[in-house]
Design goal:
The complex is a heterodimer of chains A (134) and B (104). By secondary structure, chain A is an alpha+beta fold. Chain A has one domain. Chain A is built from 2 helices and 4 strands; from the N terminus they run αββββα. In chain A, strands 1-2 form a two-stranded antiparallel ribbon. In chain A, α1 packs antiparallel against α2. Chain A is elongated. The two termini of chain A are 33 Å apart. The longest helix of chain B has 33 residues. Chain B is built from 3 helices and no strands. With 104 residues, chain B is mainly alpha-helical. Classes of the chains: A alpha+beta (134), B mainly alpha (104). At the A-B interface, α1 and α2 of A face α3 of B.
Amino acid sequence: MKVHNVFGPVDIAVSGMRAQGQHMEVISSNIANARTADAGQGQPYRRLETILRAQAEGISPVVVDQVVPDQSPFESIFDPGNPLADPTGNVAMPNVHLPAEMMNLTIASRSYQANAAILKRYQKMVETTLELLR
Amino acid sequence: MINFDPSVRSTLSNVQPSPANPENVGVPKSDFLNAIEAAGRYVSKVDDLQQASDASIQDLLTGKNNDITAVVSAVAKADVSFKVLVGVRNKLIEAYKQTMNMPL
């Protein structure tokens, strides 16, 4: 992608906003499914993680490379009344940790804000340049 | 970009060609006229960006596209290019007015 033009910073900042938006989508899925003991195949919901990647070498926009499942072990809680409980009364629960997700959420929203600030500041810079025409 | 020709004679004779003077017909265009025509050609390009931003807003509102950042990007580009065009236009008109108000 060519970035040596006037709209380079605009494209890059917007790509960052888009990537952080997708990151936030993944986080919201994790939080919404934090107590989903059965995610379809009899297994609890597996936490998802976003992998970001630069689109090219050097100056480049960012893209969401892939969304991968977190392979850490599931939580096990004691709940004998649960129909999904095993003979010992334990139920496997998703490997989602709400405090960690809230931290990720803060990171994503701050990063989104930073990209929006870049966009705003760049527009101000262009306006300053155009002031020279007057 | 604006290569203003300081030569008053060539500029004046072409900016306001008098129809009574047939000598002007074969005279090559002045740099000022070229600058204005160049700005005029950019109008359609700026209009393309405006149309693109309009289309992206419409796509978002009609639900064809859910990407709000694409709208931001398109609108920011259209905004910048339009401001550049207006700046250049103002400068050209200013130059024209200055030339016309020159005491002869």
